[in-house]
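Many introductory courses stop at the sequence. We go one step further.
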Amino acid sequence: MFAKVITTLAVAAMLAASPAQAQAATGAEEAEKASVLTFELLETRTAQWAQVRLECPSGRGNHPHAEQTCYEIKRVKGDLTKLNHSFEQRCVRDDTSAVIVDVSGNWKSQNLEYHMIFANHCHLKTTGGPIFDVL
């Protein structure tokens, strides 16, 4: 009997919660799902290196295409292996300057690690679009 009274009181309290309290709870859940990623790119021929940080969904950090990158990563649910922008652009085979990409951090409270070597800048851009456009 006592457990039933406690359950009834808990349900009544939840129903009586104000919209602001409900919104605050939702905001707290979203804050837990905030994502912080670090991108490192190395162009092998020139040794040009860049490191940028990105916070989603706020778009904070120093990624030059922050909002669009957050959107694209959300579109593939944090699985960067599913990126495939456009292979309509022809890539020139004599551009042999490979680009190494490392992305690490968390996406929606899940560990995210992505490592890829692209044959050149063209392949990098056709796969990742603005996501990897940081060099």
